[in-house]
Amino acid sequence: MQPSPSFDDRDGFIWYNGKMLPWRDAKVHVLNHGLHYASCVFEGERVYNKKVFKLNEHTERLHHSAELLGFTIPYSVADLNRITNEIIAKNAIENGYVRPFAWRGSEMMAVSAQKTSIHVAIAAWSWPSYFSNEAKERGLKLQISKWARPAPNTAPTASKAAGLYMICTLSKHAAEQAGYEDALMLDYRGLIAEATGANMFLVINGELHTPTPDCFLNGITRNTIIDLAKKRGIKVVERHIKPEELAQTQEVFICGTAAEVTPIGSIENYTFTVGPVTKQLMQDYSELVRK
């Protein structure tokens, strides 16, 4: 199997500040504020059968994330939706991934960035499942990270901001180096929060329990799963969940745009089955996104 090409060396096109550029020509200056001070927001969107699932919700969240970081995206939701569909068609994406993002420019090089311009780009590429089919069948192995999700008064935790993912990268790297596939992140109180890039659900005695998203992203896929579960008559409980409750949990799965719905087989010494609730919601989600 040939390795995928580097993300800076591919064929195709990227929309960048109003222009459709050849992929390799989409460049930024090294002194941009987003790189140095993390003033950057982004989205991750899945393309199924040439169409983004819940595109408008993703674009609205991109705008909201920018507002939480104190800047305004200079393109409307409707404009970005239209451009997203154009870039999917231009790159001939049947099933894949879209990454819209916005960041502060290079006019100022300091913590203050009041006079920086706002840049926006959208890339799209073909992309298979985030986790392998084999991993999904047996369930992922998770390590509990030493890094915690921050309190909402220490960071804009309701935004999909690049800076909030630094501890996700650290957590996932540590997990992979220890032989795991991902990490469970607790929050600043020591409660269950999420995986490094996906929300989490526990099946306890037939009920679906999920952490209250009061210090991490309330995912679009998360809310989709809650709706699907309720349509199935599955009771959904949003609450604070202690790690020791994993001992009384039968099934665990994570969900997100990239992860879709992926079962968890173990979290360190806790083990779980890939059970009927997880399998049903995996099927329901797969059918929904491909309608």
Report on the structure:
The chain is an alpha+beta fold and 291 residues long. It folds into two domains: 13-126, 2-Layer Sandwich (D-amino Acid Aminotransferase, Chain A, domain 1), CATH 3.30.470.10; 133-289, D-amino Acid Aminotransferase, subunit A, domain 2 (D-amino Acid Aminotransferase, Chain A, domain 2), CATH 3.20.10. Helix content is 26%, strand content 30%. The protein contains seven helices and 16 strands. Strands 8, 9, 10, 11, 12, 13, 14, 15 and 16 form a nine-stranded mixed sheet that branches. Strands 1, 2, 3, 4, 5, 6 and 7 form a seven-stranded antiparallel sheet that branches. Strand 15 (260-267) and strand 16 (270-271) form a beta hairpin. Helix 2 crosses helix 3. The protein starts with 12 loop residues before the first strand and ends with a helix.
